[in-house]
Design goal:
By secondary structure, this protein is α/β, with parallel strands linked by helices. Helices cover 46% and strands 15% of the residues. Strand 6, helix 7 and strand 7 form a beta-alpha-beta unit.
């Protein structure tokens, strides 16, 4: 099936479901995610974060992701998650990614706006969409240094969306990347305020560890895209450990299947939580 753009999937008139964006780091994870999407009759966003690229170089993994997305029977977008450098963003666009995220949350607002506008201009030349971040989601994505949460301001979110023209906006409402050490306190009140003030589709990062009820409340309050990474990596690792424990002489392809199976199970579970069944 032809690739679709991020804006094709996240622009909708209501908040009954959100589209899951699932990070992958190899062919097996991509295969598992596609299997889940096809079984659920659900749209799919395959993505990889720049912080993971030392394990999975973009020039090698990117073409695999694009080929996998084209093979999927469901509408599928291919997205660069947490792009931090123009070099990586440009490479993703040249490879054919249909959207890129520029994460300028570490910069002051003025600089974040200016840098994001440069990325928007570049991406539009490739016919691609752009996601950006305002505020700061806590924890660490990939190999980046862990940071504290900085809850997004309504006024800054509104200004940022208007001045950059991004297609999706990640907001910080108390979530964090990676595994939580304690239960997060979500600022649903702030999310509702931002959703009322900003027309741009809103994105939730740091989904691993949230409850089903947390996800559903975020969706009802304005979130239209939810990123899942750590949960898929953990599910795949757990399947590998199970295979090794049950069969000490297991060979490579049994572990390969475990990665695909772990990703499939996790993606399907989250698609059900997000209300994605039969939304393709």
């Amino acid at each position: 099936m032809p690739l679709v753009k991020l804006s094709d999937l996240v622009t909708k008139p209501d908040h009954t479901y959100a589209v899951g964006a699932f990070n992958v780091s190899d062919m097996e994870m991509a295969m598992g995610a596609i299997r889940a999407a096809e079984e659920m009759n659900a749209p799919l966003i395959l993505q990889v974060a720049e912080g993971r690229l030392r394990y999975s170089p973009l020039d090698l993994l990117g073409p695999v992701m694009i080929a996998a997305a084209k093979k999927c029977k469901m509408p599928t977008a291919v997205h660069l998650d947490h792009g931090g450098t123009m070099e990586t963003i440009r490479l993703a666009l040249e490879l054919g990614f249909t959207s890129v995220m520029f994460d300028g949350s570490k910069y002051p607002l003025e600089e974040n706006i200016a840098r994001t506008r440069e990325v928007v201009k570049l991406a539009k030349g490739y016919g691609a969409d752009v996601e950006a971040e305002i505020g700061r989601v806590g924890g660490a994505e990939g190999d980046y240094k862990s940071v504290d949460v900085l809850v997004t301001s309504v006024e800054e979110a509104k200004r940022f969306a208007e001045e950059t023209g991004v297609d999706a906006l990640a907001v910080a409402i108390g979530t964090a990347h990676g595994n939580y050490k304690e239960q997060p306190v979500l600022r649903i009140d702030r999310l509702k305020e931002i959703a009322a003030a900003v027309k741009t589709p809103l994105v939730l990062h740091g989904g691993t560890g949230l409850t089903d009820e947390d996800f559903k409340e975020c969706i009802a309050s304005g979130i239209q895209k939810i990123n899942i990474a750590t949960a898929s990596y953990d599910a795949s690792a757990n399947r590998i450990r199970k295979v090794a424990a049950e069969n000490p002489t297991a060979r490579y392809f049994e572990f390969s299947e475990a990665i695909a199976e772990g990703t499939y199970e996790n993606v399907k579970k989250h698609m059900a939580i997000f209300g994605m069944k039969d939304k393709a």
